Fold:
Amino acid sequence: MKLTKPYLLVIALLLASPIFLVASELTGYHEPLDLVAEALGLKEATEEFNWTPFLDYTVPGVPPVLGYILTGALGILAILVLCKLVEKVRGR
Amino acid sequence: MHIPDGFLDPVTAGVTYLIALSYTVYAFKKARSSRVELLAPVSASIFVAQMLNWPLPGGTSLHFVGGALAGILLGPWNGYMAMFLVLLVQTLIFHDGGITAFGANLLNMAILSVYTGYVFYKSFARFPGRGKVIGSFLGGWLSLVVAGLACGLQLGVSTQFPHNVTLAVPVMAGWHAVLGLAEGVITAAVVSYISSKSPELLTGGAV
Structure:
């Protein structure tokens, strides 16, 4: 398997990801940890204590679907840069 | 699975940070450079797979975690590095998972999940026939059970949490025992595909 194939999969999944965003918003379903927290009245401090403009994979002023793809691309880019750094350090 | 800010008290957050950061230093030293070329494609794939939230009957959702798959493909140390980078980017750029809970999230999804997947895969992969598929299914499934159990334990001992471990552990482990079946199926499907197309990537001994 050539290593280009996983990247094609990454791009395909990235472009498909907004479908899941819309589906989970329509159904209002959340992860188990969120459900437990809600049932117990636990309060997240995420919004009160926030440093990033890309909170929850959004871009300010950009529609959520496009923002989801853009932030996904940003995340992938950041991971690739970090992996290159790890490879360089490891290669010494 | 990502614990946000506000759920863990300072002691629980501090202890989990200490464990995770010590493990990071150790993993970086132990990781072999032979699998490092797979670090980027595996990390990027896991990052984007975690963005897909699947709504499930019963009012919950799940996303693929990928710790077991990282452990199977990269071995426990490079597998840890892959999950470390994914969680680092999620936490710092998107605040997906709290900065105060980063140690706990690493412990659950990068240490326990990766190692559980790796151990079960290695234990079963030696058997001919369906050994690799069974091992990867069990690894994927149990990686989520163990991570959910640890998450429940951390919440239970945290003074921020209004109930103790006798409630938090069974609830979190129980949910993830069910949701983990999907993690097991996806992990086994990916391993099965790679096994048929590029078996050299599945060394099964990539430490």
About this structure: Chain A touches chain B through 54 residues (CB under 8 Å). The helical segments of chain A are 4-27, 32-40, 64-91. Residues 64-91 of chain A form the longest helix (28 residues).
